[in-house]
Amino acid sequence: MWLLVFLVILVVGLPVQGQLRNGFYAFPCPQAEAIVRSTVEAHFQKDPTIAAGLLRLHFHDCFVQGCDGSVLITGSSAERNALPNQGLRGFEVIDDAKSLLEASCPGVVSCADILALAARDAVDLSDGPSWAVPTGRKDGRVSSSSQASNLPSPLDSIATQKQKFAAKGLDDHDLVTLVGAHTIGQTDCIFFRYRLYNFTTTGNADPTINQSFLRQLQALCPQNGDGSKRVALDKDSQTKFDASFFKNVRDGNGVLESDQRLWDDASTRNIVQNYAGDIRGLLGFRFDFDFSKAMIKMSSIEVKTGSDGDIRKVCSKFN
Predict the structure, then answer these.
(1) What mean pLDDT is predicted for residues 196-218?
(2) CA-to-CA distance for 305 and 297, rounded, in angstroms?
(3) pLDDT tens, 135-165?
(4) Which among 68, 73, 142, 189 is placed 20 to 30 Å from 148, CA to CA?
């Protein structure tokens, strides 16, 4: 218990980036965070996998034009319709929270902030850490599918992953820590099946896959089977936010090629090893604390504040 209290105190004490601040809605909408939390919890109780969906939704939002809710906009040319965003989930959670907030304090809470808060609550409900989310984001006025082309991809090399994260002000440690969100993630067979049967046109499987795990994946994803079948990215505890994902990467049990490649690079391997060690409890605490810091940093990417954005009435539509 004292570790959890210590974690919360440390994270609350972290400096807030930009013009965001903790407790932004304390006066204009004091129930804001509680309303978001209860909405996420209601959906989570029906489907715990929605937690990973909300976390990914926030991540994809922040990596395109910053954390401004632009991924929530509907429309044929909107960011939401870009190919890398086709599998995003959780939009209904954000819409439900927004409806309740508009009834309670209309025109006050941005969709971008709802998304940041919902991601935090999703992690907390999955037995992960909680942290004070700096708020005060405004909603963006642009949403273009063409701008989503540089989102991180499961096919990316380590060099490309590093470059994409560095472009957003995130370092190698942030990269590995944030990828650890895959501890509660899922993916479709189509995104990794090429590793199982004809990797780099050799006719063989990716040699970095643990042989026993390879057989498990081949059973889940037959060569000519349904490419949309969902598979857990953490084979050991897919609904619990913990450090087991890093043990899987260390042991050759990473599902996505981009995840497994974290073990190929000296700098990222060292970080994976630190999280995947054998000291139970302490390593989970380290990952929890680092993940909280990395999420605060990521959720501050290119935010809009003041007159740079709006407070949308409906999250899926511009005012």
Answers:
(1) 92
(2) 16
(3) 999 999 999 999 998 899 999 999 999 999 9
(4) 189
Residue 35 CA to its chain's centroid (Å): 21
Reported as a pLDDT band with limits 50, 70 and 90, residue 6 is very low
| Cβ pair 261, 158 in contact under 8 A | yes
Instruction: Give the phi and the psi of residue 15 in degrees, each rounded to 5.
Output: -65, 140
C-alpha to C-alpha distance for 58 and 50, rounded to whole angstroms? 12
- pLDDT at residue 202, rounded to an integer: 77
Joined together, the tokens standing for residue 195 give: 């590793």
Dist. CA 128–CA 73, nearest whole Å: 29
Q: Give the mean model confidence (pLDDT) for residues 218-232.
A: 95
Residue pair 220/266 in contact by the 8 Å Cβ criterion: no
> Using CA atoms, how far apart are residues 170 and 274, in angstroms rounded to an integer?
19
Strands in the chain per DSSP E: 186-188, 230-232
Residue 8 has pLDDT above 50, yes or no: no
Q: Looking at 58, 60, 173, 182, which residue is catalytic?
A: 60
CA-based angle 155:160:165, to the nearest 5? Answer: 110
Burial class (CB in 10 A: 0-12, 13-18, 19+), 11: buried
Q: Which one, of 32, 36, 182, lies nearest residue 120 by Cα?
A: 36
Token pair for 63 = 């990596």
Please say if 60 is a catalytic residue. Answer: yes
